[in-house]
Amino acid sequence: MFGVVFPDRSYPMDPSSFAQIDPLHWLLDMKTFVGEAYHEVKELCIFLLNAGVLPPEKALAVYCQAPGRPFVFCGAVHAARPSAVLSLPWPDPADDATAGPLQVAVPDAASAKIGVSVEDLAALPLVLDAGAERRVERLALRVGENLFNFMQSFCGVDGSRLVVPMDILDRWFKKFQEKAKKDPSYLKGFAL
């Protein structure tokens, strides 16, 4: 029905690599795949093996589960989108993980899991790559923090208002670009 590849980490795997829980649910124990380093696996490519394998109203939803946490929706593939590279948003302990409908009793809750589930397409979130959306939000927050910290160093106070020079955005952006040119890993530091 489907195949999975972990870019730069695996050959294509078919559903036989997963434990089939029932006709509509599969689980991959990340411990058998990467040991305790599940958080280093940042994305997964899932694809339908052939056309017509899913009815048009169904989708294959992908979830990840960090040890002791609920499943988090990562994205989906369906007849109109037969393949996708999905981010695996392994949650930080401070994150509020959103549980998905893939709530299956698993004897070994101490290891990370990847879950695949056949679901109604209409019941899935409109954003079919939830991890990418969270990454963009975090990136925007980090860049905003960088700008705020830069501006704060040039601020003056006028009553209850902060006053900054008119060219502050130009100065910040120029400094930001210079750092990125000098150090290619600088921008990677903003990605979480």
From TrEMBL:
One of its GO terms (cellular component) is nucleus. GO terms for molecular function: nuclear import signal receptor activity. Residues 19-123 form the Hikeshi-like N-terminal domain. One of its GO terms (biological process) is protein import into nucleus. Signal peptide: none annotated. It comes from the Eukaryota. Residues 136-188 form the Hikeshi-like C-terminal domain. Belongs to the OPI10 family. PANTHER family: HIKESHI FAMILY MEMBER, PROTEIN HIKESHI. This is protein OPI10 homolog. It comes from Elaeis guineensis var. tenera (Oil palm). The lineage of its organism: Eukaryota, Viridiplantae, Streptophyta, Embryophyta, Tracheophyta.
